[in-house]
C-alpha cells in the first residue's frame, strides 16, 4: 500500500507553462486527505519551488536541490547535504575551463554572475522544448527569476566559497553544445565526492554524492516510519533515477526519455495530460479512507 508519494516538478508536476493542473492539485489533495505523505522532490531551490507551490496553496514537505536540502511541510530545514568548498572550487575551475555558464545554489539562495544569461538561457531551453510557445510570454516567466528575487547576482563566486554562512548545495551548468558538455562531464567524473545528474540534455547538475533524490527520499521515509516498499516516485529525467531505484513503485512520465521509461515500473500520461494525477489515482485504489 502506498504511504508516500515523491513527485518531481519540472516536466512532471508542472506543465510547459510552469503550472500545476487542477487535476494534479485535486489528486494530491485527495492523497493527503487519505493520510498519504506527498513530498515534492525537485532540483529547484526551496525559493524557486515554493514560488510555484505557494501560488496554488499547496503545502508539502520538500526535497530541494536534488536532496541537498529537506524541508518539512511547515518549511523548516530538517536536513542538508552540501558540497565541500574545496570540491566546489574544483568544479568551478573545470566549468570555467570549458567556458560553461553555471549558477551556484546555496542555503542563502541561487546566484549568477550574469543576470541576462540567467534569463536568456531559460528562454532558450524553454523555446527549444516548446517551439510553439509565445517567446514574449516565455521571456516574462524567465525574467521572474530575477525580478522576484529567485536568482541573485554576485560579482564572484569566491564571495560564496569564502563565506562560512553559505553552504554550497549545487552547481548547475548549461550548454547546447553536447560535445563540450560531455567533455566537461568526463573531467568532472574524476572529482571525488561528486554526484552528476541532469534535468535536461542541456545541463549538468553537480551536488554532493549524498545529495541525491533517492537518498533524501529514503531519509524522509525513515523519519516518518514508512518502509521504502510503500513509496512511489514520479519523475521524468535523469536526476530522478536515484529515487526510481529505491522507491517501491517507480512511475515515468509519458514525456520522459525512453531510457528513463525503461527503468521504471510504470509509465503514466505526459505532464500536459496531468500524468501525475493519473499515477496518484491509480495508486490510491489500494489506500483505504
From TrEMBL:
Q: Which PROSITE patterns match?
A: COF_2
Q: Which UniProt keywords apply?
A: Hydrolase
Q: Which residue positions does the secretion signal occupy?
A: none
Matching Pfam families:
Hydrolase_3
Q: Does the keyword Hydrolase apply?
A: yes
Residue spans making up a coiled coil are none
* MF-aspect GO terms: magnesium ion binding; phosphatase activity
Write out the GO cellular component annotations. Answer: cytosol
Name recorded for this polypeptide: Hydrolase
Amino acid at each position: 500500500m502506498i504511504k508516500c508519494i515523491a513527485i518531481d516538478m519540472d516536466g512532471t508536476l508542472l506543465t510547459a507553462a510552469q503550472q500545476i493542473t487542477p487535476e494534479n492539485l485535486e489528486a494530491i489533495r485527495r492523497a493527503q486527505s487519505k493520510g498519504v505523505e506527498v513530498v515534492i522532490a525537485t532540483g529547484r531551490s526551496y525559493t524557486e519551488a515554493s514560488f510555484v507551490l505557494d501560488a496554488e496553496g499547496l503545502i508539502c514537505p520538500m526535497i530541494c536541490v536534488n536532496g541537498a536540502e529537506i524541508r518539512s511541510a511547515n518549511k523548516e530545514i530538517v536536513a542538508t547535504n552540501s558540497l565541500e568548498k574545496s570540491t566546489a572550487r574544483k568544479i568551478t575551475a573545470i566549468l570555467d575551463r570549458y567556458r560553461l555558464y553555471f549558477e551556484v545554489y546555496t542555503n542563502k539562495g541561487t546566484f549568477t554572475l550574469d543576470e541576462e544569461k540567467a534569463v536568456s538561457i531559460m528562454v532558450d531551453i524553454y523555446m527549444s522544448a516548446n517551439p510553439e510557445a509565445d517567446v514574449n510570454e516565455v521571456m516574462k516567466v524567465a525574467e521572474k527569476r530575477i525580478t522576484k528575487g529567485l536568482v541573485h547576482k554576485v560579482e564572484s563566486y569566491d564571495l560564496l566559497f569564502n563565506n562560512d554562512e553559505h553552504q554550497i548545495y549545487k552547481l548547475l551548468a548549461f550548454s547546447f553544445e553536447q560535445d563540450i558538455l560531455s567533455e566537461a562531464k568526463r573531467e568532472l567524473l574524476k572529482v571525488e565526492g561528486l554526484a552528476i545528474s541532469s534535468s535536461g540534455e542541456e545541463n549538468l547538475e553537480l551536488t554532493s554524492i549524498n545529495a541525491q533524490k533517492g537518498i533524501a527520499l529514503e531519509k524522509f521515509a525513515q523519519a516518518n516510519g514508512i518502509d521504502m516498499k510503500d513509496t512511489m516516485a514520479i519523475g521524468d529525467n535523469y536526476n530522478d533515477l536515484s529515487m526510481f531505484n529505491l522507491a517501491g513503485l517507480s512511475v515515468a512520465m509519458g514525456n520522459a526519455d525512453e531510457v528513463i521509461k525503461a527503468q521504471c515500473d510504470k509509465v503514466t500520461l505526459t505532464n500536459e495530460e496531468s500524468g501525475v494525477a493519473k499515477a496518484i489515482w491509480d495508486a490510491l485504489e489500494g489506500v483505504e479512507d
